[in-house]
Amino acid sequence: MKVEELKFVKDFVRITHDAWLKGWHERNGGNFSYRIKDEEVAELKELINETSECTPIGVSVPNLANEYFLVTGSGKYMRNVILDPEANIGIAKIDEKGKNYKVVWGLINGARPTSEFPSHLMSHSVKKEVTNGKNRVILHSHTTNIIALTFVLPLDSKVFTRELWEMATECPVVFPSGVGVVPWMVPGGAAIAKETSKLMKEFDIVVWAHHGTFASGETMDLAFGLMDTAEKSAEILVKVLSMGGKKQTITSDNFRDLAKDFNVSLPEKFLG
Ligand code: 2HA
Ligand code: ZN
C-alpha cells in the first residue's frame, strides 16, 4: 500500500483537482489542509518516516499537539497535485507542545507546507475546539467573484452575509452562521492567522479582502461545497450589480420562514 492509495489521500487529491477546475487556484494560489483521523493515522504508521527535523509553526496550537495534517505545499500549484502527489502535498505532524511540525511523508526535495500553514492551523485549532473535534478541513481559495465584491461592498460581516444569503435561497441553509470578513492584511503570517481564527469561532467561511476565502468543514466535501456555494452566490451578485442592481429580493421575513422549515437558526443580527 502506498500513501497515495489511501482513501482520504485520494479524496484530498480529487478536491484539489476540482478546485483547480473551478478557476480558484491560478499558479500557486490557494491551499488545502485536512486533520487526519486516528484510524487513518493507524493505516499510515508503516508508510511514514518520523525522523525529519522540526520546524517552528510560527503560532501556538496546543490542542493540535501530536495531530497529523495532510496539506498542500508552499509554492506548489494546485493543478499539479493530481499529477504528482508526493511532490506537491505532504503529511505534517505537530509536536507535543503544538509549536513545531515535521514533514513525515511527501513534500519531497525539501518542500514545505503552504505559507498559510499558520492560518490553517490556528483555524483548525479553533474549529476543533468549537465543534468538539468534528471539523477537520480548511480550504483557502482565490475565489474570483468574492474577491471582486471586496472592492465594492463595505468590508463588513453583516453586509457580506446578507448579500450572499439573498443571492441564493440555499445560502442561509449552507452557511447559517454567516460570513466573516478580514480587512486587507499581509498574508502568510501570524497576524492574519489570529484574525482569521478569531472569526472562525463564529463563522465557517471567512473572506480575506482583495485576496480570497477560507472555508472550513467537517468533511472535504462540506468545505469544498461551502466554498462553491458562497462563490456561486457572489457570482450571481456580480451579475445582478452589473445589470443595475436588485429590483426585488428575499426579505427578512422570508429568511425567518426558511429558517423555521429548514430547522436552522439564523442570527437576528443578520435579519434586521
Ligand atoms: O499559496 O494563496 O495566500 C499562496 C496563497 C497565499
Ligand atoms: Zn491566498
Automatic annotation (TrEMBL):
Family matches, as Pfam families: Aldolase_II
Domain Class II aldolase/adducin N-terminal, residue spans: 10-238
Catalytic class of the enzyme: lyase
GO biological process: pentose catabolic process; rhamnose catabolic process
Annotated GO MF terms: metal ion binding; rhamnulose-1-phosphate aldolase activity
Key words of the record: Cytoplasm, Lyase, Metal-binding, Rhamnose metabolism, Zinc
Reactions this protein catalyses: L-rhamnulose 1-phosphate = (S)-lactaldehyde + dihydroxyacetone phosphate
Active site as annotated: 116
Binding site for Zn(2+): 140, 142, 211
EC number: 4.1.2.19
Protein name, entry field: Rhamnulose-1-phosphate aldolase
Originating organism: Clostridium oryzae
Gene that encodes it: rhaD
